[in-house]
Amino acid sequence: MSLTPSDAIESLRQQIREHDYHYYVEDDPRIPDQDYDALMLQLKKLEQEHPELLTTDSPTQRVGGVPLSSFSTVQHVAPMLSLDNAFSEQDMQDFVRRIRERLKLPATSAVEFAAEPKLDGIAVSLLYEKGSLIRAATRGDGEFGEDITANVRTITAVPLRLLGGSVPLRLEVRGEVVMSKATFEAFNRRAVTKNEKPFVNPRNAAAGSLRQLDSRVTAKRSLDCYCYALGLLEGGEWPEDQMALLERLRQWGFKVNPEIKLVSGIDGCSAYYSQMMARRDQLKYEIDGLVFKVNRRDWQSELGYVSRAPRWAIAHKFPAQEAMTTVESVEFQVGRTGAITPVAKLKPVFVGGVTVSNATLHNMDEIDRLGIQVGDFVFIRRAGDVIPQVVRVVLEKRPDAARPISMPTHCPACGSDVEREEQQAVARCSGGLSCPAQRKEALKHFVSRRAMDIDGLGDKLIDQLVDTNLVQSPADLYMLQLSSLLGLERMGEKSSAKLLKAIDKSKSTTLAKFIYALGIREVGESTAKAVASFFGNLQSIKEAEIERLQEVPDVGTVVAKHIHVFFRQPDNLDVVNRLIEVGVHWTEGQPSRTKDASGSLPLTGQTVVVTGTLESVSRDDAKALLEQLGAKVAGSVSAKTSWVLAGPGAGSKLSKAEALGVEVRDEKYFLSLLESNGLQPTGD
């Protein structure tokens, strides 16, 4: 009995997927190349004869398609977190000790870790629905990334359709896209023969290949992908530990690093580190360290997260590579806070896969410690394979013409006096917003995604706005006119109108983002959020004394002083007031008066999920108000969720809550909760 075209096509696809798995994932081809090519040719012929049966997850659809005009931004279904780093054996011992203490383990109990190479590539998120790949995205800032689906579809190690019978309804897989050393070297050889610019290292090559607007170019780059984690699994059971998770990934058709190993305790971690360090140069891909993850998933859940990193995993970086070069000069750069930083201008040298021509000297104390002079021979190290640093001076090679380095008495950007507080290592320009260097950097910080999030206002445009005196403070951004923008480079009527719309949109923000955007010294995103949640409104923050500010979780004396001093400066208050006058606004609450006798907030220890549409307040504002009451607001429902705040239109989160027996509360309850604690759902 002959097969129908539909059945024949599906049979061929399944055969090819299985052969792809054995070839690319298992490295164990089951048929000769010519037989594989014959299957693919037969499938292509049938799909051409029956175009109505062509699907996007067919093995024939990896060659790339029509070029894109740009990449769109997408939100990850769950944040892609970063990892804390360990640079020494002591750091690893401290990591294991913290885990044992948090889990309250007896001294005789060993912690098992899933150990894996830390690939030097590009992190990606792969989203599947009903077994088919529907979206791939870069890590981006962890919450938002770029949609690179068309390019990832060309990577043969990424299954377009999952294998096996137990395929979940929705699945998000995390992995690392890399270019092998051999592919990288071959690409650069071809580039040199064609008088084209070669890539600096395999990581840059992988990144450049993934960000090609023409996916047909990506398809020619022979990229590889190793998967190692899940961000989402709906319609299936989570594996009980990390090693089981990796095995499940293999069963679904993903490529998992063959070097991954289960190790026990700090001794096992150390032994694995020594083994991989010795084999580093023999691997077919670049690695910059190792990753150790607590194997048991229940322990991972108990350990939880801190800031944007899990407590149950760490990256043990390899020692940085070093090289010797000479200091040709020293320049002094002015940061957005006025810090004057000496930067060594070096004779270019290749270190850790990149050409280094600059290295920070941090401050005059560091210069004195190193005893460095212009003209010296120095060893350069890329700390953690990232930041170029001067490690030491080769004094025996010091030339006669070497000359000492001294801090300038006046700002190199504006000429204002340079000040250095007693017992402080950092010298600062006293010019404030009158200093062009600080003004530009402060504005760039103000408009960044995590701050006011003004799309389209990039560094070059800010430079133009400041250089032409159109903008001298953040409030001036909201006074810009179309006619003024049209006179700037690359600013046509359409792009100018789009920018003005983005600026106007940014007026509606949150108190936390506004505080962060002001660029107060040492006040990062997490601190700004904590301060905003604690006080609830701007006026309370302005009036707070240092002692009151220190009551905010994780705010110490130094940061409290910076915040206090900032809001005591007339120029800073003028900037804040002008921003409010031009329409920047957010929803405010009241200063925290809701602690009980034990010092706890009403929702301390509770995890709440918000879903659906709320009538009296936006979901973002509802989350902020819940956090002000002490709750932890999560993005997904689990057995540990305390309750769910659900409005009309609630979907899968509500269904999951009901399935897990998690209590569901409505907006009426939420408003009553706010009222009983002296909070309002809306405010000026």
Account of the protein in words:
It is a single chain. Helix 3 (89-103) packs antiparallel against helix 9 and helix 18 (525-535) packs across helix 23 (619-628). This protein is of the alpha+beta class and 684 residues long. It has six domains: 5-62, Helix Hairpins, CATH 1.10.287; 99-317, DNA ligase/mRNA capping enzyme (D-amino Acid Aminotransferase, Chain A, domain 1, 2-Layer Sandwich), CATH 3.30.470.30; 322-419, Nucleic acid-binding proteins (OB fold (Dihydrolipoamide Acetyltransferase, E2P)), CATH 2.40.50.140; 432-505, 5' to 3' exonuclease, C-terminal subdomain (DNA polymerase, domain 1, Orthogonal Bundle), CATH 1.10.150.20; 511-581, 5' to 3' exonuclease, C-terminal subdomain (DNA polymerase, domain 1, Orthogonal Bundle); 607-676, BRCT domain (Rossmann fold), CATH 3.40.50.10190. The protein is globular, with a radius of gyration of 28 Å. Strands 14, 15, 16, 17, 18, 19 and 20 form a seven-stranded antiparallel β-sheet that branches. A five-stranded mixed β-sheet has the order 2-13-10-3-9. The protein has 25 helices and 24 strands. It is an enzyme of class 6 (ligase). Its EC number is 6.5.1.2. Belongs to the NAD-dependent DNA ligase family. LigA subfamily. Keywords: DNA damage, DNA repair, DNA replication, Ligase, Magnesium, Manganese, Metal-binding, NAD, Zinc.
